[in-house]
Design brief:
It is built from 3 helices and no strands. By secondary structure, it is mainly α. It is elongated. Helix 1 runs antiparallel to helix 2, helix 1 packs parallel to helix 3 and helix 2 packs antiparallel against helix 3. It has one domain. The N and C termini lie far apart (43 Å).
Length: 86
């Protein structure tokens, strides 16, 4: 029982650190302005809305908080990889 709570807690902390990396990378990109910054800003809003809808659907269909955090972490890591390349 405690193992799943501990794992959820650690994954949530990791998600927070990973998200901060994405925030920093996005701020750097947005600070440059131009078309790339506009595209990134639109992508950021769209991704957040889609992720929230997916999380709600996961929970509504019997999914767990662990699943939601795992899905968010996957998306955040993908963003970090994409933003760190360019």
């Amino acid at each position: 029982m405690y193992d799943s709570w501990l794992r959820l807690g650690l994954d949530t902390v990791r998600l927070g650190f990973e998200a901060q990396t994405v925030v920093a990378l996005r701020l750097a990109k947005l600070s440059l302005g131009g078309e790339a910054a506009q595209i990134e800003a639109q992508r950021m809003v769209t991704e957040k809305l889609e992720a929230a809808a997916e999380a709600a659907m996961t929970l509504a269909t019997g999914g767990t908080a662990e699943r939601v955090v795992r899905d968010y972490r996957r998306k955040v890591r993908a963003n970090a990889r994409r933003l760190s390349r360019g």
